[in-house]
Amino acid sequence: MQASRARLFKEYKEVQREKAADPDIQLVCDDSNIFKWTALIKGPSETPYEGGVFQLAFAVPEQYPLQPPQVRFLTKIFHPNVHFKTGEICLDILKNAWSPAWTLQSVCRAIIALMAHPEPDSPLNCDSGNLLRSGDVRGYQSMARMYTRLAAMPKKRLAARIILITGQSNPV
Amino acid sequence: MDSDSINNASSTSVHNGKDFSRKKRRSAKLKQCKLDARREQWLSQSVVKNKVCCKAGTNGGDSKRTPRGERDSSLENLEMRRRGEANGGGENGSVQHESDSESLPSNSPTSSLLLGGTGSGTSFTNSSSGSTSSGGCCSGSITEEEGDDGCLDDWEAVADALAADDDKQEMERNENYRENLCSGSTPEHEPNPQLGLNGARSDLRNSKPECQRTVQMATGTSRAWRVDDAFRPQTLPNLSKQRSFPATDRHFGQGGVSWVRSSAFSPPSSCPICCEDLDFTDSSFLPCLCGFRLCLFCHKRILEDDGRCPGCRKAYEHDPMEAEASIQGGSMTFRLARSCSMIARS
């Protein structure tokens, strides 16, 4: 309990100090509860998630960092390893490959990496996984891009984007 | 300087010769006890792990050799010359000094022992030459003699004068030795017998001297040691870098250890897991070969949990004894150093 608190506090300070270091990740601690964090991550470029901002919710157990934090997407995302309804993430480092040396920040990075490199063979989102496994990359990308636009883009930007798209190319 | 050194040399050589034979008898006894004790310890450890057992076996051979070699340790040359002087007279005085100084750098890693050991008892060692402080155990005790001889012509007088000090020292050293035995066997335990022998030696030096057979023996066997000795200073820091830490945590707060640490590398200031500051014990604790450091508390919690190193995710070695035994070699010196420092304080 005490250890996890101290550790989280240190991570908090670290995050404050290196806010500019990783512009793709914005990690925010709940005002009243240091065991609740939210993160905003940018969809990696050259993926269907590009341009989207995805919100993650961290629930840190008291045994942290010996136990991994529970992370889920608050933002809808079409990804083979993310449960479409609950936002649960299937990622080894959040399960058995967790190491106490990892931090919330590094978890965010791992999730960004997972977005860029989906693992269709252990899907939580069967539709997405099936698309990829059947080789329909284009189908997967279209779906993912659509949901990124629908759910992960700020409304203003989304509107601008739609105008851009409708003006220049075929809408999805 | 030259004439002086010659005088000193010749006188010391005679005394030394006498000493050593006497010493030989005593040291043989001492050696026997030591070996027995050590074997016992090894055996007990080897029950835990075969690996350890093997090491112990090889060490057993070493231990037989080392005490003798150590007696003259790095000073092989010195002894040889001494012998020559005793036989042929003292031309080699200057050479002796030279060899003395030669031995200094090679012994420097163990200097802290010496500092503790000799520094506490005899004040003249320091005054006689800076060598004692920087020299190894044996060289230290010998230079001690020389320094004394330089001051006083009469050996008997010196012996009387030294008697009190040396008795004290001997006791302390034996204590050290015992302590060392208790604290476990090591693959590399040269300094261990050194200390014990030093005690014996200083004692014998005072009592009575005769011939120089021991010296011959010593010169013969000390070759192996000398090689060791010559290459020790370079290797010691490396050893400590890799493995001495788990053992060094037993003797924190000691100068010798801090020397090692500074020469090795500085561990993180706080535990990456719990973010508590690492105390000396923690920072000298190296549980995994990958180099990932953490505090003992977190280490224990992880062992109770899944037992994998956070750094490399490989399982920690479950048998701490094994880790210890494999590690102790490089750090034996420092354990000794600790005990010496205790003397210095007492």
Automatic annotation (TrEMBL), chain A:
Q: Indicate the segments forming the UBC core domain, all copies.
A: 3-153
Pfam families linked:
UQ_con
| Catalytic machinery residues | C90 (glycyl thioester intermediate)
What is one process in the GO biological process aspect for this record?
protein polyubiquitination
Q: Which PROSITE patterns match?
A: UBC_1, UBC_2
Q: Which domain of life is it from?
A: Eukaryota
Question: Any keyword Nucleotide-binding?
Answer: yes
Give its E.C. classification number: 2.3.2.23
Q: Tell me the enzyme class.
A: transferase
The leader peptide range reads none
Q: Which InterPro entries match?
A: Ub_conjugating_enzyme, UBC, UBQ-conjugating_AS, UBQ-conjugating_enzyme/RWD
Q: Name one GO cellular component term.
A: nucleus
UniProtKB keywords: ATP-binding, Nucleotide-binding, Peroxisome biogenesis, Transferase, Ubl conjugation pathway
One GO molecular function term of this record is: ATP binding
Query: Which family, according to the similarity comment?
Result: Belongs to the ubiquitin-conjugating enzyme family.
Q: What is this protein called?
A: E2 ubiquitin-conjugating enzyme
Organism field: Theobroma cacao
- The organism's taxonomic lineage, starting at the top: Eukaryota, Viridiplantae, Streptophyta, Embryophyta, Tracheophyta
UniProtKB/TrEMBL annotation, chain B:
- Gene3D superfamilies per the record? Zinc/RING finger domain, C3HC4 (zinc finger)
Q: Ranges of Basic and acidic residues compositional bias?
A: 62-85, 202-211
Q: Record's PROSITE patterns? A: ZF_RING_2 (PS50089)
Question: One MF term from GO for this chain?
Answer: ubiquitin-protein transferase activity
Keywords of this protein's UniProt record, alphabetized? Metal-binding, Zinc, Zinc-finger
**Which CDD domains does this entry report, sorted A to Z?**
mRING-HC-C4C4_CNOT4 (cd16618)
InterPro entries annotated for this entry? Mot2, NOT4_mRING-HC-C4C4, Znf_RING, Znf_RING/FYVE/PHD
User: Which superkingdom is the protein from?
Assistant: Eukaryota
Q: Where is this region: Disordered?
A: 1-41, 54-140, 163-211
Stated name of the protein: RING/U-box superfamily protein, putative isoform 1
**The organism's lineage?**
Eukaryota, Viridiplantae, Streptophyta, Embryophyta, Tracheophyta
